[in-house]
Write a structure and sequence with these properties.
alpha/beta; Rossmann fold; disordered C terminus; single chain; 4-stranded parallel beta sheet
Length: 259
């Protein structure tokens, strides 16, 4: 869009969607930009759905540099400090607030716990500063996580069936498919490792930076997961601010369950 096209929007009925990914190792078969590819796909699906609830949508350029400590030992991974990400997200929220945009919805596909903490911190800081609502459905929490498939629920989910299927649907030419088909399952649960205090992929049992069942990935499953991701972001926006002109639109966004 040009700035004049943006000027023609009704900002009070516009939601800005920010794809949030990472530059991080994703096994020997998926590109380092996997999370950004998935986050951008999630944002585009939500941009198709939100207008049905009356919202105009602008999809912001993706943000790729985020904390990525679990993969820090792998070549190609580039992370930033959590306070850097938090400050940047608050600055984006501040800029959108000054332009009158109704809400900032974060399409996040990176699940590093330090990264997630920074995003939650930014959302809370925006609320404390009375900026626009920052809508952030944390995919690792209820009610969202149970909707993302069996592999995702096991916690053995990084560059496996779930993410591999999404990249096959979105950017199949970037998947090293000959390698993917031959990779053995790695059922080690990242969720369990994180709860035990592990802070690296290698320490969690992923010496090649993948977990789960990558050989089982399909583009058809990826399309299904994309639809679900788009629905999740759309539902989170509706839960937080309702639809234009509704009573919910003027109320404060609900706090997410800590589960």
């Amino acid at each position: 869009m040009t700035w004049e096209e943006v000027r023609e929007l009704n900002p009070g009925e516009t939601v800005a969607v920010l794809p949030l990914g990472a530059v991080e190792a994703h096994g020997p078969h998926l590109p380092i930009g996997t999370d950004t590819i998935i986050a951008s796909g999630m944002a585009e699906r939500a941009a198709e759905l939100l207008p049905r609830s009356g919202w105009s949508v602008i999809v912001l350029p993706p943000l790729e540099f985020t904390p990525a400590g679990f993969a820090a030992a792998f070549p190609g991974t580039l992370g930033v400090r959590p306070e850097t990400l938090e400050a940047l997200l608050v600055d984006v929220a501040d800029g959108l607030t000054r332009q009158g945009i109704r809400a900032l919805a974060i399409a996040n596909a990176h699940l590093d716990p330090v990264h997630l903490g920074a995003v939650h911190g930014a959302r809370n800081a925006a609320r404390e500063r009375e900026l626009l609502p920052v809508v952030f459905p944390d995919l690792t929490r209820k009610p969202w996580a149970p909707r993302l498939g069996e592999e995702f629920r096991t916690g053995a989910c990084h560059a496996g069936r779930f993410e591999g299927s999404l990249v096959l649907a979105l950017a199949p030419g970037l998947v090293r498919d000959e390698i993917r088909r031959e990779l053995p399952p790695n059922p080690a649960s990242l969720s369990d490792a994180i709860r035990a205090g592990v802070t690296t992929f290698a320490g969690a049992g992923g010496p090649r930076a993948y977990f789960g069942w990558p050989a089982e990935a399909t583009s058809d499953e990826g399309e299904l997961m994309l639809d679900i991701l788009g629905e999740i972001l759309t539902e989170a926006v509706r839960d937080a601010i309702g639809v234009p002109g509704s009573a919910a639109e003027t109320s404060a966004p609900p706090r997410e369950s800590p589960e």
